[in-house]
Write a structure and sequence with these properties.
heterodimer; A: about 280 residues; mainly alpha; MetI-like fold; 12 helices; about 0% strand; flat; disordered C terminus; B: about 350 residues; alpha+beta; Rossmann fold; OB fold (Dihydrolipoamide Acetyltransferase, E2P); 2 domains; 6-stranded mixed sheet; 6-stranded antiparallel sheet; 8 helices; 21 strands; about 25% helix
Chain lengths: ~280, ~350
């Protein structure tokens, strides 16, 4: 009796898990599969696997739109945002967590404050600033604008990370022969790795998927990013589902690869548990 | 190997003075314990010696070097922290070798010294584990080993046993004593646990409110506490305190006169605070002190009695004894086991030897 109950429990658990998996993964799967179907078969072919897989849609993207150029732009923006966020956030978060300096409190409150406004609210003023600074319609402007979103978030997350680490770890390192900087680089940074990777993924995601900021900041075709390219595809090629799905697949691909490589850290980082006292 | 010297060391946090001018010399190879309640400045003093806390005024010497303004890394001291502070992302072996690597010691030399320390602390099988996979006692040993391999001038230990359970603590106490005997290194050990201080240290430094109260061997401190604080802090169960007036022939304790043989009154007619350790009361039908039993705690080999003498609370520890609530016992105390303290200053007043 008890065993039967256990079996039922187990089965129902897996049924729910599989249902949830299908629910969240199937649309993505369908998108990828559709992007490999040819224009001729796209409405008739509804199997789980394309009858006649083709790269025609991907090649078409590049022929009809500036997709590779936009890809480059998006990569430049997302990578720059990620790198800058990481560099600055790590240092600032460490400083707030560990050092007592004038304006520390103001800084932490300002960080929290910056969350209170929707990013949209600051977008237009920022646009005006950028134009006045002579940076209108440039990728640099876009990078700066995306940073205003990713940095408070990154500092906040890493601050929590550094706070949870015992002071004594650094002190032990300093007694073992490190300078303060040495202790930070050799002991603190490796321990903050899960948090840093989480912040990196977040900032990459935010800037890679950003749509609003580029639409406001960028005008010229040569500076457009992927997300803007995607709107062009969907606006001009309404019935070309294969093309649209290929465009989407291209956008999602680096995220999926990155996540698969880093998901171990990502989960650790979200759980926030880096060290046990 | 080096002696450590503190000259008038002071430390303020904002307007609060936490260490109020400590002067102390720890001899080469000596095991000294800083003992005191939390907030007495003992950890701060240790951290100033380590260089983790800036020295306010005064100076600190390790060996012949003035280290007052030196970085921790240049002081060549080792430190064991209460929470061990092992690097969680490194294996035991890497933890042990880290200090040597930072100092540019060649690889095979590191290997050799790590192995030596590992053998000494029986860590051999754990070398490839991460700190998370160790028990408290093992982590403690690794933390010790980390200072051991470095061949530091002095070992600083900040409450290293307080995270361990009682049984392990007793075992580590023995291991630490043995280690000190083997290495003959200068060691400073901070603790709030009098048992640790009394059992391991060559000398104990008792601190309270940022001031050194007394420095002495464990027995000196137990036998001749310098003031009321030391008297009440050291010894368990705690010392009894009763106000008495010194007379020509002994003590006047309220209405009761306690005649004492072998008695040289400190200053006749003056009121003192008398301290008697619970185990120094002797149950004796001819004794002049009357004790009314309130609570009896049977401890097996001994009995702890809590009650009143002349209406003021007192406790006494005797060899096993059957007693019950309301019993009246007669007690006496040998003169040499009486401690007199000045009521105003709290300082010890020594009896003048008869002669």
């Amino acid at each position: 009796m008890k065993q039967a109950l256990k079996a039922i429990q187990k089965i129902s658990f897996w049924v729910v898990v599989l249902a949830l998996l299908a629910y969240s993964i199937f649309p993505i799967y369908w998108m990828v599969v559709t992007s490999f179907r040819s224009t001729a078969t796209i409405t008739s072919d509804s199997g789980l696997w394309p009858q006649d897989p083709t790269f025609e849609n991907f090649l078409g993207l590049n022929r009809l739109f500036n997709y590779s150029e936009q890809y480059m732009n998006s990569l430049i923006v997302a990578t720059s945002v990620t790198v800058i966020t990481m560099l600055i956030c790590t240092l600032v978060a460490y400083a707030i967590a560990r050092r007592n300096f004038k304006g520390r409190k103001t800084l932490t409150i300002a960080l929290l404050f910056s969350y209170m406004f929707p990013p949209l609210l600051t977008l237009i003023p920022l646009y005006v600033y950028m134009v006045k600074a002579g940076l209108g319609d440039t990728l640099i402007a876009l990078i700066i604008v995306e940073l205003t979103v990713t940095m408070p978030l990154g500092i906040w997350m890493l601050w929590g990370f550094f706070k949870s680490m015992p002071f004594q770890l650094e002190e032990a390192a300093m007694i073992d022969g490190c300078s303060r900087l040495g202790a930070f680089v050799r002991i603190m940074l490796p321990l903050a790795k899960p948090g840093m990777i989480t912040v990196a993924i977040f900032s990459f995601l935010i800037s890679w998927n950003g749509y609003l900021a580029p639409t406001v900041m960028i005008e010229s075709d040569s500076n457009k990013t992927l997300q803007m390219g995607l709107t062009a595809v969907s606006a001009n090629m309404t019935s070309q589902w294969g093309l649209l799905m290929a465009a989407c697949t291209m956008i999602v691909a680096p995220l999926v690869v990155g996540f698969l490589l880093l998901n171990r850290y990502f989960i650790q980082g979200l759980a926030g548990a880096g060290v046990k006292g | 190997m080096a002696k450590i010297q503190l000259n008038q060391v002071q430390k303020n946090y904002g307007s609060v003075q936490v260490v109020k001018g400590i002067s102390l010399t720890v001899e080469d190879g000596e095991f000294v314990a800083f003992l005191g309640p939390s907030g007495c400045g003992k950890s701060t003093t240790l951290r100033m010696i380590a260089g983790l806390e800036e020295v306010g005024t005064g100076s600190i010497f390790i060996g012949n070097r003035d280290v007052t303004r030196m970085e921790p890394k240049d002081r060549n001291v080792g430190m064991v922290f209460q929470n061990y502070a092992l690097y969680p992302h490194k294996t035991v072996k890497e933890n042990l070798g880290f200090g040597l690597r930072m100092r540019g010691v060649p690889k095979d030399e590191i290997e050799k010294r790590v192995m030596e320390a590992a053998t000494m602390l029986s860590l051999g099988e754990l070398l490839n584990r991460k700190p998370k996979q160790l028990s408290g006692g093992q982590m403690q040993r690794v933390a010790l080993g980390r200072t051991l391999v470095r061949d530091a001038d002095a070992f600083l230990l900040d409450e290293p046993l307080s995270n361990l359970d009682a049984k392990l603590r007793a075992q580590m106490r023995i291991e630490l004593s043995q280690l000190h005997r083997k290495l003959r290194k200068t060691m400073i050990y901070v603790t709030h646990d009098q048992v640790e201080a009394m059992t391991m240290a060559d000398r104990v430094v008792i601190m309270h409110g940022g001031v050194v109260q007394q420095v002495g061997t464990p027995l000196e401190i137990f036998d001749k506490p310098a003031n009321l604080f030391v008297a009440s802090f050291v010894g368990s169960p705690e010392m009894n305190f009763i106000d008495v007036t010194a007379t020509q022939s002994g003590l006047q304790m309220g209405p009761v006169a306690v005649p004492l043989d072998d008695w040289n009154p400190p200053e006749v007619g003056k009121v003192y605070r008398l301290g008697v350790r619970p185990e120094h009361f002797i149950v004796d039908p001819t004794g002049s002190i009357e004790f009314v039993v309130d609570v009896v705690e049977q401890l097996g080999t001994s009995t702890l009695l809590i009650g009143t003498i002349n209406g003021s609370r007192a406790q006494l520890q005797t060899p096993r004894l059957e007693a019950g609530y309301g019993d009246r016992l007669r007690l006496r105390v040998e003169t040499r086991n009486l401690h007199f303290f000045d009521k105003q200053t709290g300082q010890r007043v020594d009896l003048v030897a008869r002669g």
